[in-house]
Specification:
Blueprint lengths: L6 E10 L4 H15 L1 H5 L1 H14 L3 E3 L2 E2 L2 E4 L5 E15 L6 E13 L3 H17 L1 H8 L4 H8 L12 H4 L13 H11 L3 E5 L5 E6 H7 L21 H6 L15 E2 L5 H10 L4 E6 L2 E7 H9 L2
Amino acid sequence: MKLSSYLNPKCIYFDLEGNTKEEIIIQMIEKTAKNDKQFSKSMEVIKEAVLERESEVSTAVGSGILIPHARVDGYDNILLSIGILKEPIECEMADLRSKDMVKIFFMITAETLKNKVMLKIMSSITKIALKDKPLLDKLINAKSSQEVFELLSNIDVKTNTKITADDVMDPTIKPAKPSDTLDEIARRLITEQKPGFPVVGEDNKFLGEMTEKELISYGMPDYTSVMSNLDFFTIGEPFEEYLKNEKTTTISELYRKETINVDRNTPIMEICLLMVNKGYTRIYVVEDGKYYGTILRSHIIKKVLHI
């Protein structure tokens, strides 16, 4: 189906004004209630659900897009409504460590069990944000509902396929480079609160990963890994080798080459089995040697179980 199939042209709003995302969301909900009878019947429940979901984790995905959404008991429909702001407003991103100037809201409401369709719609919108700036610019600058509707008529939503790695991966995690120093990686691990990063070379070629383990291991003598009693390490500066070289030593010889990778079409259940039965906490999405994204356990929870 096309993305426009879930869109009521009457639920496309222009020149919205507000100081917070909550103000914009409430405006959109109240306007949509006037234009969609089924939505109107569940308006208060929808408002509570959308605002509660947004308060848990921001749905700003970058490039000026926010995707507020909720699954609602008893609401037997899937509706996409769009709000284009007169002036962008600043919103926190999902990681709560960066912000984005949001210009367009894609609000999705669906019945509780429609999580797969909702995820597919969200995935299609996120791809616009990350990969199709010309289309995004046209949407933001559109002057009529018909223009927006026609632009989205070209976007496929593959609801008849299984949820795959392509739907749940995070393509926004910035990869590390072999030329990055220990200090640069340590700073990123702290500020971005990630356990590790994919490492890529030229043309986005996937090389491996650099994690907290490799960083800590660098400062330890090789033989300590096979010793059971390290009490004699009481003299001298801990991690002296690391502290001497953190700003000059690169990760080119340190990053881990062996990783768990899947392609973009790998079914979600296969990914979950790797995480649950094999204990993997992160999986990289790689095709033809190129890096596309990272899947963490938290992505499964956020995008599938608690969408």
